[in-house]
Amino acid sequence: MSGSFWKVAVEAPLPEPLTYEAPSQLEGHPLLKRGSTVRVPLGKRTALGVLISDGADGEGPFKIREISEIVASRPPLPEPYLQWLEWVAKYYIHPIGNVIESVFPPLGKAENARQKSRKGPVAPVVARIAPPELTDEQRVVVDGILADRGFGAHLVHGVTGSGKTEVYIRLLEDLIARDKQALVLVPEISLTPQLTQRFAMRLGDAVAVIHSGLTPREKTDQWWAMVEGRKRVLIGARSALFCPVENLGLIIIDEEHEGSFKQDEKLKYHARDSAVVLAKLYDCPVVLGSATPSLETWGNAKNGRYRLHEMKKRVEDRPMPTVEVIDLRAERDDRKTSEPRPDLPFWLSGGLHDALKETLLAGKQSALFLNRRGVAQSVVCPACGHTPQCPNCEVSLTLHGKNHLLCHYCDFHRTLGPVCGDCKEGEPKPLGLGTELVENDLLRLFPGAKVARMDRDEITTREDLEAAIADIEAGAVDFIVGTQMIAKGLDFPDLILVGLVMADVAFNLPDFRASERAFQLLTQVAGRSGRHVSDVPGRVIIQTYNPDHPSIAFTRAHDYDGFARFEMSCREQLRYPPFSRMGAFRVQGLDLDKVKRAADALKARAERLLARQIAYQRIDLLGPAPCPLAKLRNNFRFQFLVKGPDAANLGRFCRQLLADGDWIPSGVKISIDMDAINLI
Ligand code: ADP
Ligand code: ZN
């Protein structure tokens, strides 16, 4: 007697599920159903897969093989969750089996038990504290969101320090009382002990946390605790979305504008957009929070697809920080004419210097933000102008310490010799600016002051981060110098001055989102200042060569709406997102010629498809052109952009372009990044 046929999404890079037959002894098994995990033969090995549907017919050119066993140790995937995985696979054009692979933790339960555990609990254990009384604005937002338990996408647009976290906590308390579960996604970089403690202090041991500092075993423990319903709230980075909870009642995406919610390799999903789809399938609310919403989300709020909730004031009427802009061009001219201040390094204006000094004397803390690590951005030979490059990537090497050259993309490093490697004559000189140089200069200018540098050179582990935060909280630090690491989420009571050493670094990027990113970054960094004191407002000083840049002008005025209106009109003219959807094909390989030819062939295919099908007439093609990072880890990279007004239509076009890839030469890889964020 033969059994039933099943389509199985096998954990392998196959475009479609495969058909298998259930042997008769499995018939009637309670787990022989959609969503269950099975083991199946695949070539000479076996692989895991998930049952997608029964009733597939057994006809076909290939011999149908039998399912080997049902893997009962993996919980069957809940129906809405499986539907979501199918959507992810289709929308992001990724094999369903590889999407399913992202769901299960690296270790099964049995393997897990054998792994060694580290001491101490994973989620923070802290004393519970009583809730503060909500501000009027918070109350309106909480009530507004709780009014409807079904699907709804809510944007909480609240200025920095308006108390968005407290809003999330109230929603979560309500959810726990209703016996539901929630996912809280935050950017990895703000997954700090500070943030997770704030949740734990209020929600107690209902909270599970997954962050990059955990061992595989700890991660697996947290995963199971959620899947089995022992924990209610999972806080994690974007991948927490792949925890298949049964009882999902709420999703929260904090700092929804963050580019890191988009994964730009392998499965190129956007966690925010995917979360909205997941919430829809579970018929539950999804809450997106930010002081500087992405224009995609802003567009959705303005056209009514998302509900907009605004919080315009900081809690307890604490003032917004004052923002001063220092024009570095004027500063430079001044130095030529007026009384010179030889004590000041080139990157520090008199105004920012005096503010730092004042803050130090008042016993408060200052933070200096600079989006560059190292001592100098690069070195240059004064004789021939040569700048050492990474041999694997098309970027200059960055100077670290006295003579250590490092590539920030592939980690290539070498020692800087005393003479130029090119002309063998000149003596290479540092060019530009990095966090390490700022630190050194501060120590020289303010002897005895304590400086904490927070960047990827100094803070490599979670322990480093915890230690640095503890030092700052204990008041053992006068100056914080850092990169993006200090832009997000940190909340220090004594921090009343924030200086942006050179704002220009942010908006000089070859990317249509550069202004948006610059505005977000400036506003977020500025938002670290003066969050607790209500008598003296926090101060922000922006040093820049472009004081009239819109990103700076709108930051200064705390005017998100103005910025959004301005930037939206630029996007609309160029039909860039959110006025279109964009997919980025990336063509790469070791042989430049082959890569170029493949990129041209892709374009020719696209043009033929456009000419043949009227449905595609509103799709625009851009490129192909070398990526701004034209060579990375020895791979030459070309980009080919496609944009169109309708996501489903554009998706169909891209899938069709990539179908039967026989024309792609060997040694060349073509991938598609739907709604790409990273265009570098
Ligand atoms: P945001 O995430 O909007 O920047 P936070 O949630 O970090 O703001 O809140 C800013 C500060 O205000 C935090 O120190 C927080 O503990 C405090 N806070 C939040 N809500 C209230 C409230 N209702 N009453 C008093 N303090 C509050
Ligand atoms: Zn490199």
Characterise the protein shown here:
By secondary structure, this protein is an alpha/beta fold. It folds into 4 domains: 5-78, 3-Layer(aba) Sandwich (GIY-YIG endonuclease); 113-317, Rossmann fold, CATH 3.40.50; 322-375 and 433-568, 3-Layer(aba) Sandwich (Rossmann fold), CATH 3.40.50.300; 581-674, Alpha-Beta Plaits (2-Layer Sandwich), CATH 3.30.70.600. Helices cover 31% and strands 22% of the residues. The protein has 19 helices and 28 strands. Strands 9-10-8-11-12-7-13 form a 7-stranded parallel beta sheet, with helices on both faces. A 6-stranded mixed beta sheet has the order 5-2-1-4-3-6. α13 (462-473) links the parallel β21 (451-454) and β22 (479-482). The protein is globular and about 90 Å long. It starts with a strand and ends in a 6-residue tail after the last strand. Mean pLDDT is 89; it is low at 116-120. The structure holds adenosine-5'-diphosphate and zinc ion.
Which ranges are low-confidence, i.e. pLDDT below 50, for 5 or more consecutive residues? 116-120
Question: Any idea what the CATH architecture of the largest domain is?
Answer: 3-Layer(aba) Sandwich
Fourth-level CATH superfamily of the largest domain: P-loop containing nucleotide triphosphate hydrolases
**Cα separation of the termini:** 58 Å
Count of alpha/pi helices: 19
Cα Rg: 27 Å
Bound small-molecule species: adenosine-5'-diphosphate, zinc ion
Q: How much of the polypeptide forms β-strand, as a percent range?
A: 15-25%
Helix content: 25-40%
DSSP, total strands: 28
